[in-house]
Amino acid sequence: HAMTIGVERDISAMKEREAELARARQAAEDAASAKTRFLATMSHEIRTPMNAVIGMAELLREGPLALDQLHAVDTIVDSGRALLAIINDILDLARLQSGTPVIRKEPFSIFACVNGVIDLMEPLARAKGIDLAADLPVDTPPLIGDEGRLRQILVNLVGNAIKFTPSGSVRVALGLRRTGDIAQVEIGVIDTGIGIAEDRLEHVFDSFTQADGEITRRFGGTGLGLTISRLLAREMGGDIAARSSPGAGSDFRLTLSLAVAQNREARPIAAAT
Ligand code: ADP
């Protein structure tokens, strides 16, 4: 009889522990979703007045202004835009983390997409005296995917490469291997910049994390770009990997596996170009 009581006690203790674990899991899930909701709401609430501040400051800039006033108004516009970019990143991250679908599936030209990013970033590279080169095959088949989100990832990778490269070059290489209706895409962004220490390399993908606090203050940025980019890449069935060697440069590789558009679906691209 004593043994039966002992076993029953063990079972009830086990059940209690299980219930406790389930409660803790539920609490963690609730906290995560509350955080996501909070960030999304805050971002919306901040965006509206911030847009008004920027809009009004832009209006003021038109008027006759003394030089120091013009400088002040320019600072308002620039700071407002920087704040808005941060807010947009936070909102984007909150959406991605809550599992809200953000990826569109439409036919697009990957050549035009990568080429467009090069054109966009070229002045930034030139201003720093950095050689921005692209190695792209011209005969890419039309693919199905989210061109805007792909552009966002590439602008982040190329922007970082330029930002963390004091001199030398940034090279963007596009490779594409087709097997039937699927194209394995690999885009490398390779720089000759300051590089990242080995023990910091995986952490650059964490939110609000930068490789080096001191560098960060010097370079600015939120530390959200790579977090968002990797989440987006994974939403697209791909990933981003990084290799780096301090003092020599970094190599960020985006891999995606995208469906090749059939002729019927490809027509909008032909019409657009
Ligand atoms: P942010 O650029 O806004 O700080 P990211 O998430 O894009 O945020 O990057 C996180 C950190 O990773 C950067 O602050 C930087 O320390 C490091 N990093 C990213 N790309 C590079 C690169 N190409 N070369 C050196 N460091 C990099």
Automatic annotation (TrEMBL):
Protein origin, superkingdom: Bacteria
Domain Histidine kinase: 41-260
Protein name listed in UniProt: histidine kinase
